[in-house]
Amino acid sequence: MQVYEAPLRDMRFVIHELHQDDGFGDLEALEEFSPDLVDAVLEEAAKVAQEVLLPLNRSGDIEGCTLENGVVRTPKGFKEAYDMFREGGWCALASDPEWGGQGLPEAVNKMTEEMICSTNLSFSLYPGLTHGGTTAIEAYASDELKQFYLPKMVSGEWSGTMCLTEPHCGTDLGMLRTKAVPQADGSYKLSGAKIFISAGDHDLTENIVHLVLARLPDAPAGVKGISLFLVPKYLPKEDGTPGPSNGVSVAAIEHKMGLKASATCQLNFDDSTGWLVGKPNKGMEAMFKMMNTERVSVGVQGLGVGEAAYQSAVYYARERLQGRSLSGVKNPNGPADPIIVHPDVRRMLMTMRAYNEGCRALGGWVSRALDAEKHATDPAVKQNAEDFIALMTPVVKALFTDLGHESANLAVQVYGGHGYIAESGVEQYARDARIAMIYEGTNGIQALDLVGRKMPAHMGRYLRSFFHPVSSFVEAHKADEQFGPMIAGLEKAFGALQLSTGTIAQKGMKDPEEAGAAATDYLRLMGLVAMAYCFAKSALIARDRLGEGTEEAGFYKAKLATAQFYFDRILPQATAAFLAIKAGKASMMALDDAAF
User: Fold this and answer.
1) What are phi and psi of 443, to 5 degrees?
2) Catalytic member of 373, 406, 440, 491
3) How far is CA 208 from the centre of its chain?
4) Which of 368, 501, 517, 527 is the 20 to 30 Å CA partner of 35?
5) Residue 547: its H or E element
């Protein structure tokens, strides 16, 4: 059964308590957003997620999207839900007020995104991709394009997509063939085919703005010859209303494993009119602005599904009667005990809980950096925030989606045979979560980005944005009487990360395949250490609150228990990752291609 109640108390903990000493300081531009206002926004977002989006999740999965006379129709209820969502201002939550946005902190925006993804991941893609598109347009488009398109996209009246992949090329975008021919009026005519376009067509908005990668006639080969273009589905009239069709057609809807209520389309561009965004042949720079925004949001998708799967599993474990407790009967008036009493079920539930709380804490830290990058007035703070975001973006995208999918699978396991049956609803989480490990750059690509670009950048400067606060925290708290063993565990894992960094740097300079072979394990190791740091901070805060005699003792005791479980049962994975990195590429690359 799909059940969900927004984890508002933990969200408030992350926003108001956990990251107050993160080095980014108070941001003057966000002072108007008091804790009471933030809490009120989160509470309203929870109502929308629970009351409007959750009831459409399973029905949307069953019905899916349909293609009728060249137009995509979303499932029953989606149009009404989107209209309510847009009219409530949720599309514009964190956007710049200059374009009609509300300018709320990213920390609030990401928590809201989590709730939306928990209750209806398919729905989340429609406004989510639009927000990503506005970031690229705002950063690189001409003033004329910004003035014309951003207000309608920020409000949600118009939606957006990113059109990268083509039938013959996936991650290797240097192979793309879509052409853009300059016109006398400064526009371009685009022709080509794109596949896997999320929200590529639908009936939720009156127009769709496609950001399309294409080649100019004189463009150099490879990624150095890619430009970015803004191509609307309908050419707008002077008054801003949609005009004639712009030669953008839907060839088919992809038949997918999950996310069936999200329209993933094959699109054809036939002499479609578009306008250049950014400089000629510099399209990847502009597109990466959107992609990096989306990568953090995709990480939040993993967290959102993980939380929903966890709550559904807890609900079932409390209700399902099977067997008797190993320590003695717990339900003497029933034929059996609820399965939540069994250690292995507890192992699965606690693993999911720790994954969710760890990801939410780390995501909150990255969100604070996103706000500092945008609003900090101190150049040093802004630079540190930019460095931290660059380093952690691939970690958030890959780790959160890995763990979200693992949590979805654990939920199926808790349900047993009933989890494999569609009526339970949890198998949908496993199907929906799987794509997040693939799109916006597969998790293997994220790991290569981390070790190939982020780790060596500026002589390791990005690493210092993370290593320094962890090192300082360990030094300050290693002698703590109560939590000394926990801090020692963090110190050991952090040491493994530092040694792994040196190993990869040394081997990778001589043989790039060594860095490639270590990449996935290194990303997991960095993520484990980052979550351990967040859990250790959480434990100290919980201890202090309990010492003060808080009325919320139950919450802080649970936080301590979850932190201890993380250090006991999950952080030891850091040792395995370190040993795998030390082993090098030899056995991985030993077989000839023909031997597989």
Assistant:
1) -65, -25
2) 440
3) 23
4) 527
5) helix 512-547
The pLDDT, as a whole number, for residue 143 is 96
Q: Which H or E run contains 138?
A: helix 121-140
What is the CB-side half-sphere exposure of residue 397 using CA atoms within 13 A?
A: 31
* Alpha helix stretches (DSSP H) within 376-442: 379-415, 426-434
Per the CB < 8 A criterion, the answer to whether 370 and 292 are in contact is no
Q: Among 403, 404, 426, which residue's Cα sits nearest to residue 320?
A: 426
Provide the pairing of β-strand 158-163 with 234-236: unpaired
**DSSP of 51-106:** IIIHHHHHHHHHH--EEETTEEEPPTTHHHHHHHHHHTTGGGTTS-GGGT-----H
Active-site residue flag, 440: yes
Strands 207-214 and 158-163: parallel
Token pair for 5: 């109640």
Q: Which two tokens stand for residue 6?
A: 């927004």
At residue 170, the pLDDT reads 66
Cα-Cα-Cα-Cα torsion 123, 125, 126, 128, nearest 10 degrees, comes to 120
Q: Which residues pair with 188 in a beta bridge?
A: 182, 274
Contact 371, 105 (CB under 8 A): yes
Alpha-carbon distances of 417 from 143, 290, 337, 408, 422, rounded to whole Å:
57, 41, 18, 15, 11
**CA dist., res. 466 & res. 119, Å (int):** 32
Give the number of other Cβ atoms within 10 Å of residue 469's Cβ: 18
pLDDT at 392: 97
Q: Say what the pLDDT of residue 18 is.
A: 95
Nearest Cα to Cα of residue 163 among 152, 151, 173, 175: 173
Gap between the Cα atoms of 426 and 410, Å rounded: 10
Q: What is the pLDDT of residue 350?
A: 98
d(CA 288, CA 173): 12
Report helix, strand or coil for 167.
Answer: coil
Whose CA is closest to 359, among 305, 429, 435?
305
Which residues are 274's β-sheet partners?
188
DSSP bridge partners of 73: 66
Residue 280 φ/ψ, nearest 5 degrees? -60, 140
What single DSSP character describes residue 32?
T
**How far is Cα 56 from Cα 45, in angstroms, rounded to an integer?**
16
Cβ–Cβ < 8 Å for 281, 219? yes
Q: Report which DSSP code applies to 219.
A: P
Which residues in the chain show pLDDT less than 70? 170-171, 174
Check if the beta carbon of residue 194 is closer than 8 Å to that of residue 165.
Answer: yes
End-to-end CA distance of the chain: give it in Å, rounded.
42
The amino acid present at 420, given as its one-letter code, is Y
Give the per-residue pLDDT at 291.
79
Summary count for the chain: helices (H), strands (E)? 17, 11
Name residues whose C-beta falls within 8 Å of residue 193's C-beta, 6 or more positions apart in sequence: 166, 167, 178, 251, 266, 267, 268, 269
Q: Which two tokens stand for residue 457?
A: 């950048």
Q: 248-253 and 264-277 as β-strands: parallel, antiparallel, unpaired?
A: antiparallel
Number of residues that make up the chain:
596
Q: How far apart are CA 301 and CA 117, in angstroms?
A: 5
